[in-house]
Write a sequence for this structure.
């Protein structure tokens, strides 16, 4: 009897921990989906990206939990196998991978091996219901925000005036690309940009440039109106009357780029980047992922 109670306790411990992990991945996935994802022009493509890139960890852990409820020892072997694959993948000895991925998987493998859940129906509802509830609760607000984004369809040069700034922002092309670049490339591209913003001339024209961090902060909008951004250089923080968003006329709604370089340097090795929602971060000038781009500006 005591042995049976112990097995039940270990089984429910495994299900509880697995469900907690599923909930964490559900929350992270749905928030990141509407932060950096959901940029395709069609619903089907956006849903595909959401399921494969952002919600796949949650779905995997839900699947492992359901397997653990019905076939605990098979689930235990799967956990150990995945832990082994993770050990090989992170063979550089990452502390984060060891503590956040490999160790929990091994621990769950032990719990499932020695535990067993009798109330399979209740456990199934817990394993599936709580992550889905987390996803829905945390996803409603960003989903509504993204659905209300302003997209005027124009990718031409834009004169944007307001909040103490007046700048012409480059049109779609080499001065406003869809791909990422490092800071040095962004600066050079703006310097070589032709008057109409359509061509890189191969030599410095010095007509266009990157915006300063203060100019970028002051130019961001929400629902077609200036967000009232103010840049405080002392703590290096931006504040807004209304949180800005990835929308026209500054941003391409259907682009994976969610960060821009600014001309403002932190030091010799770093410069500030700005997020579409107004946050400002220092980054290495050599950093250049696909989601970090730029848009050149010039005076009217």
């Amino acid at each position: 009897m005591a042995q049976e109670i112990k097995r039940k306790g270990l089984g429910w411990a495994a299900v509880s921990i697995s469900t907690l992990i599923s909930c964490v991945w559900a929350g992270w996935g749905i928030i990141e989906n509407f932060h950096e994802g959901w940029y395709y022009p069609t619903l089907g493509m956006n849903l595909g990206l959401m399921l494969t890139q952002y919600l796949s960890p949650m779905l995997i852990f839900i699947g492992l939990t359901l397997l653990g409820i019905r076939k605990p020892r098979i689930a235990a072997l799967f956990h150990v196998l995945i832990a082994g694959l993770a050990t090989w993948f992170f063979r550089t000895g990452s502390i984060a991978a060891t503590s956040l991925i490999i160790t929990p998987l091994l621990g769950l493998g032990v719990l499932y091996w020695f535990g067993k859940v009798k109330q399979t129906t209740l456990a199934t509802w817990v394993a599936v219901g709580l992550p889905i509830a987390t996803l829905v609760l945390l996803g409603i607000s960003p989903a509504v925000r993204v659905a209300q984004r302003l997209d005027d369809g124009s990718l031409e040069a834009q004169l944007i005036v307001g909040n103490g700034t007046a700048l012409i922002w480059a049109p779609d092309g080499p001065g406003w690309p869809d791909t990422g670049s490092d800071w040095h490339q962004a600066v050079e591209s703006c310097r070589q940009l032709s008057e109409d913003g359509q061509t890189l001339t191969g030599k410095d024209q010095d007509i266009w440039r990157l915006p300063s961090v203060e100019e970028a902060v002051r130019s961001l909008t929400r629902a077609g109106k200036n967000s009232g951004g103010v840049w405080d250089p002392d703590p290096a923080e931006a504040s807004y009357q209304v949180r800005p968003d990835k929308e026209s006329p500054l941003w391409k709604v259907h682009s994976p780029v969610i960060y821009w370089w600014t001309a403002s340097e932190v030091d010799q090795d770093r410069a500030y980047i700005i997020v579409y929602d107004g946050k400002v971060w220092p980054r290495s000038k050599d950093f250049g992922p696909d989601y970090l781009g730029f848009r050149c500006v010039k005076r009217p």
Summary: The chain has eight helices and eleven strands. The chain has a mean pLDDT of 93. The first helix runs from residue 2 to 35.
